[in-house]
Structure prediction request, 167 residues.
Amino acid sequence: MRPRVADVTAGLGRDSFVLASLGCEVQLIERVPVIQLLLADGLARAAQDPELTPIIERMELIREDSIAWLRRQAGALQRPEVVYVDPMFPHSDKSALAKKEMRLFRDLVGDDGDAELLLAAALEAAQNRVVVKRPRKAPLIPGPAPSFQLEGKSGRFDIYALKKLER
Ligand SMILES: C[S@@+](CC[C@H](N)C(=O)[O-])C[C@H]1O[C@@H](n2cnc3c(N)ncnc32)[C@H](O)[C@@H]1O
Prediction:
């Protein structure tokens, strides 16, 4: 059994799709209406492909601000085991800005200046861990220090381990 994941910064659902492909049940929470529409359209189209149907069936889109959603989960029975957080990062990295898709996305979404509140709500709601995706050189989201970090070529995961995952 894979963990139940809440992707509280769903965006276009790429990371969620990877997690669902690995067998996780994923709740995708997105607050920007135009991104919600794009994501819903992508999920509906993907669901028509028989190879993808079982993956898409593990993905549930929730159209809401994740801070409010997470605050409600904190007292609920079915809290997410893992909360995944990938907010926009306000940097001026030319290589990222040069990408047309990224520029358009940033214009629609803004800079997610409330990432600190989002992390705090995630830490209250998650049962087992919170995973934050950041550019490799980016500072931590203000708050408690992560338990450990995994670094890749351009990105980094800050992992806040709360309770052992029983699998
Ligand atoms: C960098 S993108 C995430 C990309 C995503 N990981 C993917 O693989 O496509 C950040 C997204 O999180 C959303 N977001 C940020 N803060 C949020 C919040 N508090 N509630 C809901 N959505 C939020 C933004 O609107 C944006 O679409």
